[in-house]
Amino acid sequence: KFETVGSSTDPVAVRTLVRDGRRYFYAVNRDLYPIELEVTFSANPGEVVDLSTNENLHPSERWRFVLGPYELRSYTVAPDIGVVGFSAMPPEDILDRLTAEAREALELIEQVRAVGMELPGMDAIASGMRLALEEGRLAWLRRALNGYVVLRCRELTNGM
Asked: Are 160 and 115 in contact (CB under 8 A)?
């Protein structure tokens, strides 16, 4: 079983496994826009093999590359080289748009609440959106923005 690297798999999941004398690892973009990824190794990895092309790569201890929308990339390195962390950087315009849409959705939820209406799951979605904004979980946030609660709140507040 692959082990998850880091504490989040949103919007990118990185997982690793040592087997048959090699460390395997993969990164998958869970969303529909490209993401710049920086993977951090425990030491300079020397050679990294791209499993889809069999190409030998020679990144440094911090390795940057772009994952396309929903793209999965898999690699191997020496078993003693750990994949110790990563950071995922979505395009700034995507981050700005999702943040603005989330703030608007939270306002819509408050408007619905202010007129005494409650929708099933409304409180959970509102608190989840706040947490997703704080933690940078953009894949979850994008899905919530297109879910029942937000869409229904938008309908209900259209006539207000």
From this structure: yes
